[in-house]
Design a protein that fits this description.
Length: about 220
Amino acid sequence: MKNLCFLILFILFSLSAFSQVRVGIRVGVHWSTVLNEKLYTGRQLAPGGLVAIPFQLPLSDRWGLRAEPTFVQKGWKTRIKIVNANGVSSETGHLVQRHEVIELPVLVTYRKELSSRLAVFGLLGPSVGYVVGGRLKVISKNAPDVNDKLIFERRIDTGLWAGGGLEFPVAGIPAFVDVRYHYGLSAYPNFKVYDTKPTSTGFSVSVGCWPFAGK
């Protein structure tokens, strides 16, 4: 899987040298949780990091195709009761799970200039990724913290991304801010699937720029 990722990056960078492909960088925060899982109640959004290298190929003045190798942390958290040695609930804490995914979204983009210094864009498309690791943590004030590695039932992660944002120049370099929604299509990586199919969902807020804007 690692060799495949390097091969994809090599191909994308090679294409960018001989075409109008724009190469950028995007960083942000991804908030996510789990859907359709009956084991846990009161689930909350868990924040995680996000780093991506977008490659934008223009198809027309407004339409384009974007491949975006991405490292993203997905997960969820919930409040739990901490039970002491006597079996009495002494306090509440948080159970937090995060897993890291290297994925490749392929997105159709639409961009419209509002002025010489401002443009809006939207994007939509599928993604496929590979879960590379993750941890389960229990955090509380008085009880000892738990920090265990996750055991995965499956590692392939697929989903859909949709969103949009604004693009504007900063110091002569095209910059952007965007917001995206993610809906998971594959079963959650470390849950057994019985009568339900737990999936991941969430949204991200990120900023980025296009230091290599193509020809």
